Protein 1
Amino acid sequence: MKKKIIACLLTAAMTTSMFSVGVQAADKGTDRTFKILSMWAEDDADSGQILKDVTEQYIQEVNPDFKYEFELVSVDNLKQKIATLAASNDLPDVFAYDAGTPLIELIDAGLVLDVGAKLNELGIYDKVDPSAVDFLTGLTGTDTLYDLPLGQNIEGFWYNKAAFEKAGIENPPATWDEMLEDADKLMEAGIQPFVTGGADSWPATRLINAYVIRKLGPDAMDKAYKGEIKYTDAGIVEGAKMLQDMVEKGYFGEGATTVDQNTAANMVLSGEAAMIYNGSWYVSQLQADTNPAGEDGIGFFNIPTVEGGVGKAGEYSMNCGTILAFSNDKYDEVTEGWLKYFVENVADYAINNQGTLRGYVIDQYPDDLSSYSKMVAEEIEKSTGSATWFEAAMDSELSQIAQENVQSLMNGDVTPEEYCESLQDIWDAAH
Amino acid sequence: MKLKTVLSNKKAIFFFVFPGFVLYTVFVVLPVVWSGYYTFFDGIPGIKWEFCGFDNFVRLFHDKNFVKALIVNLKYIGIVTAGQVCIGLLLALMFKYWLKHFATLVRTIVFFPVVLPTVAVGQLFAKIYEIQPHYGLLNSLLKAVGLQDLVQPWIGQASTALGSLSAMDIWTAVGFYAIIFYGALLDIPEDVVEAARIDGCRPLQLFRMVLAPLLRPMIITCVIFSFTGTVKMFESALALTGGGPGGATKSLSIYMYDTAFTYSKTGYGSVIALFIFLVCVVGSRIIRSFEKPID
């Protein structure tokens, strides 16, 4: 009896192991399933839709045998998921990830494909917009691309034209002082001058960043993380103080830390507030039929210059959104086919279907491009230099502390000096 | 008799216990041991993983943010446990001795929030406390009754955020405790209460001298329930305030989550998890020490 049981167990074990070997062998072949790990839903009318539709297009036009799996993971779980998969040596073929410091960790561990080299081999390196290449390689501190952009955004102030008119403001401000004067005029006219998604925190730190890059130059926050200047530098403290003062003066209305960025963005559309700092991803909201301000109701101006500051008016705060990275291990001809098609076609798909720029060279702009998309394209053309966002160079802990404490700063619970010291403390502990 | 035969059969015991034992070991004991092992490492498994000895334990004692989260958590435990148990008890007394009409309806309404998902409750209260772009229910009411001075960003400032969160959590769970106490009150023999009344007990005396001592075991059970529920304060804070503003509602669990999963410090996160476990054990032990031995 015992022997029988053992025999049964052994047979079962052998069958299972043979089966798993079979599966692995099939996995390596050309008919394997290509895995995409996304943080955007397939039908989000944004990056998720692009990933899915361009892949579907690839299947239709080029490779009908291509099989893929689209897995969605929430933003909060993305990093953890990738870490777990990396630990079990099972990174997806292509996955969404945070540009900058988090990606550097993966590059250092040798897990991410040098996608720049592959693009060169395929002869399509020039399909990626040069400014996006500069930007991404700058973030990773590498000579070659380790990630692909999925967005090309400029950031700045968006304003409700009707509100400006009502307050008697003719032109958007060019200097920070002018902007504050305009804010006073708006207050007098009974309009809330600014709104920010303080509940989400990141829109608030962007405002500090805006001031700092104009005061200390576009690479100020990079320098701080590298240790060349301190987070307690007078320029950064001044930026923090500027935000606190603006909140205290009531420019952001009551309870500035309770509004999320989506609500804030809608408030500018409906004229409940006049200005918001936001990125050009705002365009999808602007060109929607639901925009009460209409096709020409919202204007854009770049971050105003600060008196005595190093930053120039032509420099824009830019970002490439969350990026796409590729598994180093899994790269084979299946990935290559997809990569080539994606890089060659993503720009056209995005501009024609969504009116958005994704960091790839566009051969021809469509004739029916919305006025907002045109405006963004024109602004990008004007750019003479770029800066990153506040937390771009920071590691995750520093970034979280910067965002968490900015609410206390806005509420006046900490002084600007204390806010900057809290950042420096975390930096000191880590270095 | 048959059960005795079964229980004296060692093979039978093995047969019954083994599956449960394996499951429990794999899903409870092993992860606990594993996380104990993690406490000696720095980084995140799979990407950067280095042995660091007792560094993580030493760090715990110098970590300002940890102390801040601990204080927030202790305040929350105090306010919410007291609120849930006291108000639950008051409601139960109301159900039993005061409500004459619509008793079932009122009990259902009070119990209703218990079954609502936390995230939905968070969204609901975010609307109630809203100040911008429009006043929420609370601020509108205050304004309507002429208390304009009290209109404020309830969840947007450190001074009121924890209180607002606690109020929400008390509201959510109080029905549960009210029903438990109501059940316990029904168990108290009517003649005892009757006798006390004939002896001239006034309502307050009746509660203090008769009902409270009889309810004691149930009160302790409820305090333990509420305590263990509040020690792990996490989802309601995340849903309403996201731990903000500026960490004013950031609990130990949220801090542990951030440390382990956002800051990529799995080892240090495990140390904090261990600490939460200790708080649970010690806290429950202290509460149980109020139990009187049964004669």
Note: The longest helix of chain A spans residues 2-28.
Protein 2
Amino acid sequence: MAQKLRLDDQGIQSALQRMAEAGVENAAAGLSQMIGQRITMSVPRVTSVPLASVAERVGGPEAQVVGIYVAAEGDLTGHMMLIMGLDDAQRLVNLLLGQVDDCVVGLNALGRSALAEVGNLTASFFLNAIASLMQCSARPSPPAVVVDMAGAILDIMLVSAGELSDDILLLETLFESEGRQMTILFWVLPDLLTLESLLL
Amino acid sequence: MEQVITVGLAEIAVSDNPDAVLVAFGLGSCVGVCAYDPVRKLAGLLHAMLPQQRNGDGNKCKYVDSGVAELLSQLMARGARREQLTFRYAGGAQMLTAPGMTDRFNIGKQNAEMAHSVLAREKLQLLASDTGGHAGRTVRLFVANGRVQVRMINGDERAL
């Protein structure tokens, strides 16, 4: 790399913002279709966050959360994760499996595989929108569902981003369902090379 | 009155306040390296995310190898004696286990191995370690007595 990319550069943040809006809109539409209920999304925010404070954004590093992780592969590479509290994960599973809200099956194998499918679909729709804008190809890895402390789960994404910089460039969107109160964070961490290609 | 000092990702904390507890919350593939001088009652905790520093990147605390060196130098600057220092470390889990999932580098294992080899190379006194597995850990280091507690998400808590 001839020149060190500046993550706080306005150009790169607004380029990413444009891509993110298209990607997130498509992902929300796909997710709404899958669960048969309208999912609304907040306008994605692109922010640069110091490594040490990333976990604060999801309730602190020891908070128990569910993360659905998908890597982007192909011309565009990076990391994507849906992050939610245990209660919201349970609500989402109930919604997907057509169960009533007070039915607590826990995150059994069926629940986890339903969540994995949500991750797969969200990531695919997100990547497809961006890849078609940029006329390149990108595909999601198989999804992984992890239930653990937020800090431990975020390590999965932060390791590769953190190797290159002390801050990460984070794209953050909030999904909310209209019917049942449910909030899901969608985080995207593009790799540095992908960020550079967005600027060309 | 217990005073919690949080040690974030890529950070070091050093304290001789007997009421303080140094805590690295939610370590996944990261490792927390605890150091304690029982005579001086001085404690230090490193929260590192990658095994090895390359090309002199600025933040030493991000890496296990340069982080341990930095931890050592901060402790010595506060009056610790090298031969008195005892070390424990925990973390280095493999968080991704799904079939076909890329945990290409198993960074957690690399971090734990680096902690072990750096301490051995520097001839520092290693008392205990708790690494590997597939779950996160919170590590607490009590400044008053050097005790180290490891907690998992299921509530399991044990002394290290």
Note: The longest strand of chain B covers residues 20-27.
